[in-house]
């Protein structure tokens, strides 16, 4: 598990500085009633793909499971709102 520490630091830094700001921006976008564009969807797809790869790491570090769960919920909320917006158009 000690070898995981460096990876966890990098992942948390990426989340804080890159991913979370963009994710929150996407949430604001769909909350305003704007549909996601292709680059937004590509970003979410990449984030979800990376998250799937991190499942074993999170499984070994229970202290990150609540954060991971909240992020999954946020992604689900964004994509659900986007689907609702797409159905209206």
Structure description:
This protein is an all-alpha fold and 89 residues long. It has one domain (4-88). It is 84% helix and 0% strand. It has 3 helices and no strands. It has helices spanning 4-31, 38-60, 65-88. Helix 1 (4-31) packs antiparallel against helix 2 (38-60), helix 1 (4-31) runs parallel beside helix 3 (65-88) and helix 2 packs antiparallel against helix 3. The longest helix is centred in the N-terminal third of the chain and has 28 residues, at 4-31. The mean pLDDT is 94.
Looking at this protein, list some descriptive labels.
89 residues, mainly alpha, 0% strand
Task: Give a nutshell description of this structure.
The chain is mostly helical and 89 residues long. The protein has helices at residues 4-31, 38-60, 65-88.
How would the blueprint of this fold be written?
Elements (H helix, E strand, L loop, with lengths): L3 H28 L6 H23 L4 H24 L1
Helix pairs in contact: 1-2, 1-3, 2-3
What is the residue-averaged pLDDT?
94
Structural class: mainly alpha
Query: What share of residues are in beta strands?
Result: under 5%
Q: Helix segment count?
A: 3
How many domains comprise the coordinates? 1
Number of strands: 0
First-residue to last-residue Cα separation: 49 Å
Radius of gyration equals 14 Å
- Broad shape: elongated
User: Which parts are unreliable, with pLDDT below 50 for 5 consecutive residues or more?
Assistant: none
Percent helix: over 70%
Q: Can you summarize the main beta sheet?
A: none
């Amino acid at each position: 598990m000690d070898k995981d520490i460096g990876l966890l630091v990098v992942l948390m830094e990426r989340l804080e500085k890159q991913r979370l700001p963009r994710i929150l921006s996407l949430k604001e976008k769909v909350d305003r009633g704007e549909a996601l564009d292709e680059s937004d969807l590509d970003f979410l797809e990449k984030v979800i793909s990376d998250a799937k790869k991190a499942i074993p790491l999170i499984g070994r570090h229970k202290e990150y499971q609540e954060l991971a769960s909240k992020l999954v919920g946020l992604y689900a909320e964004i994509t659900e709102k986007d689907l609702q917006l797409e159905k209206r158009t």
